[in-house]
Write a structure and sequence with these properties.
alpha+beta, 30% helix, 4-stranded antiparallel beta sheet, elongated, 3-stranded antiparallel beta sheet, 9 strands, binds zinc ion
Length: 181
């Protein structure tokens, strides 16, 4: 079973829109309810740590060992074996590739908040053809001073809502007007 978490799209555009599905890959294992897999973005998220999990199986295993450290050892071993089998069947990509998939998705459909990740205030450069997005006001100001010194536009940057796939890297914007529909 999968749960659609995108808003319904008008039928006229639906052929363009790849729906935003959360595949409940790990839901059969009650103890792994904190993991969500998003097939469209080849993205595996952990709500226990508010983070995304990278593509290597060893990284995934050590991540699980941390998250399941309070589970009795026998059970922990069984769960991890099952989880690794599921992981092998999933397509999980690099942060860079997931970010590209997320960004191209927004061309056709609004991207909603990911319940697993922290919601951040991000600073987005407003210069045409520049997609710089950062969580730091200092960094966006430095970027503008360095890259767009000669240009004058207002505003120079805007604050948007978004997430990051890695601590302080791989930022993406979500459509905050859909936060509280
Ligand atoms: Zn975790
Ligand atoms: Zn810029």
């Amino acid at each position: 079973m999968s749960t659609p978490i995108s808003i319904p799209v008008p039928s006229s555009t639906s052929s363009l829109v790849s729906l935003f599905w959360e595949k409940e890959a790990f839901r059969e294992i009650q103890e792994l309810g904190f993991l969500s897999y998003y097939k469209d973005f080849k993205l595996l998220l952990c709500s226990a740590c508010s983070c995304s999990i990278f593509l290597f199986i060893n990284t995934f295993k050590s991540h699980l060992l941390q998250d399941l450290k309070l589970v009795p050892l026998d059970l922990q071993k069984t769960i991890i074996t099952q989880a690794l089998d599921i992981f092998k069947s999933l397509e999980v990509s690099s942060y860079k590739e997931s970010l590209e998939l997320l960004t191209s998705f927004t061309l056709y459909s609004p991207l909603l908040v990911f319940k697993e990740l922290d919601l951040l205030d991000l600073y987005q450069c407003k210069f045409p053809n520049c997609s710089t997005l950062t969580s730091s006001k200092t960094i966006i100001k430095r970027h503008i001073n360095k890259e767009h010194k000669e240009s004058i536009i207002t505003p120079l940057y805007v604050v948007v809502k978004g997430h990051s796939l890695e601590a302080n890297r791989f930022f993406f914007e979500i459509q905050s007007e859909f936060l509280n529909p």
